[in-house]
Write the structure tokens for this entry.
Amino acid sequence: MSAVVIYMSYCVGGVHVTYSNREKTKDFVHQQNIVYLLWSDRAVITAGGVLIAFTFALIALHAMLLEAMSPDEPQTTMLARLFGTISIEADGSIAENFTHGMSFVASILFLAAASAARSRFCLLLSILMSFAWFDDSASFHERVGEIFQELGLTLGISGLDHHTQGELAAWLIIGLILLPFAIWAILGRSERDRTISKLVALPVAVLVISASIMDLLHALFPHIRALVYLEDGGEMLAIAMIATVALFLARNTHVIINKETVFRAPTNRSNS
């Protein structure tokens, strides 16, 4: 969670300026600090802050309700029902539906940015978030796991039950589908795609780790409660950050098209 704070609040602001080639001096270094790009759009920061704050609130409510419940709490009590409504790991909960909505919106915003900026990488991100939305809303990898368990199918991996191997097979299927798009985007990457990749590198990495590795570890060690927060909580935070970046790109395609654009921090904020 500290990564979110570092990522979103490392810089306090920026001023949008355009230089000629001769005027690019030491301020050009700030182009490498990608956080300035996000901070240049206050509307995006406000919207992203709301998404991340609401995500933290849902995670905190999940933890508090879980702590308040006794181990043998009947499922019919008001507390248990409230936990099921809020829980970050329950199907059909407010937290799950909120994550579905962020994934879908991020996919559409990346598609809009891809169309405006002719960015292959934005299109790849749109496809990635579409798969994230599809997997979450349709419980794709869980359903494949159930099929493996019902039919007794296996990948030949010892130490893993049929359901877990089915979930692993589902992730492999998604990876194989995304691979051609990833190769196409990498081979045709441009300077603006490199900038975009820096913007999404951290949250996408967190999303992949939370949705695959932590999900697998949670299936293997279901009694370790911390894995719930690393899997579902990490996924929610990553998607909130990705949705924030997607909103920025959809609103500011001129920034990733114009190679002469740099951002510098003002020396006196009162005069900015």
The two ends are 31 Å apart (CA to CA). The longest helix spans residues 191-220. The chain has eleven helices and two strands. Strands lie at 15-18, 261-264.
